[in-house]
From TrEMBL:
SUPFAM superfamilies: Glutamine synthetase/guanido kinase (SSF55931). It catalyses: L-arginyl-[protein] + ATP = N(omega)-phospho-L-arginyl-[protein] + ADP + H(+). Gene3D superfamilies: Glutamine synthetase/guanido kinase, catalytic domain. This is Protein-arginine kinase. Transmembrane segments: none annotated. Residues 24-255 form the Phosphagen kinase C-terminal domain. One of its GO terms (molecular function) is protein arginine kinase activity. Belongs to the ATP:guanido phosphotransferase family. ATP binds at residues 27-31, 92, 126, 177-181, 208-213. It comes from Virgibacillus kekensis. InterPro entries: Arg_Kinase, ATP-guanido_PTrfase, ATP-guanido_PTrfase_AS, ATP-guanido_PTrfase_cat, Gln_synth/guanido_kin_cat_dom. The keyword Repeat does not apply. PROSITE patterns: PHOSPHAGEN_KINASE, PHOSPHAGEN_KINASE_C.
Amino acid sequence: MTLQHFMNEAISPWMRKDGPDSDIVLSSRIRLARNFAEFTYPILANETDLQKISEFIRNEYEHQTFQDYENLEFIPIKNLTPIEKRVLVEKHLISPHLVEHDHSSGTLISENEQVSVMVNEEDHIRIQLYFPGFQINKALEKAFEFDDWLEKKIDYAFDETRGYLTTCPTNVGTGMRASVMMHLPALAMTQQLNRMIPAINQLGLVVRGIYGEGSEAIGNIFQISNQITLGRSEEDIVQDLQSVVQQLIEHERNARARLMEQSGTKLEDRIYRSYGVLEYSRIIESKEAAKCLSDVRLGIDLGIIQNVTRNILNELMVLTQPGFLQQYAQKTLTPNERDVLRASLIRERLQLENS
């Protein structure tokens, strides 16, 4: 397996499977922050120590297999081109923050892209494990198992009182971020989500954009995650997140039903107009494409559009991002060139679906 394996497909293999409530929940993720007990944390560590950590991870775990996570591949960030870095960020295999620290950083990725371990980001290692749909409890169970497997060879920085020790105080304790990626077009259209966010924040959870902290909610896709890591168990944190997500699913379904009942023709018109833009545009910006893809996905979920599968929309949401467009073209593109190629790829993909 080579780097090209991760570059060729816009949609990761695990994303091709449907999960519970996948009409609204795109994915569930557990991220665990861990540090080596014997090394200074990345923010203060010297380059020699960071390189030792990177080499240790590569030597001990590259090409290894643990359960369903086969043929782990270590990718040094410094070896990547700017376009390749951007593609891995767009696929959520690495964070934008990891790209900024590329000298001794890397990522360990399973062949099915369900697990990635970021090395020397904010912490020495950050384990990410994904599941399709709403499977946050299963993701937690599998993340624990993978974490235990790594810990057989790593002495983690851990305090009996404080829990796992991390670079940022907000991660001390469990070191865990549990998050769920949701498509909430009806709540966004009816302005209900804006009223819900303050209440969600009061419960120790946060609503962010598609790429996490500081990112924009593109295409009505929102990430719901925990803020509190200290003083509570992982199971309690996940239970709170699960409760809120279940309520959001119910509210989104009710909002969709009301839109169909009260403004059905208007909603259908919006959905078909967006479909027409995707099918016939010769130039389209990323925000407009994301908005139209969100509308069409809603149309699929409501049974209004029946000739396009949900997976095609998942694929296009990634394929039309700037990094993937340039990877596809095998060169750096101007914004206008990206907009033209984006429109062309969407047309071609929809035509293939309809043929």
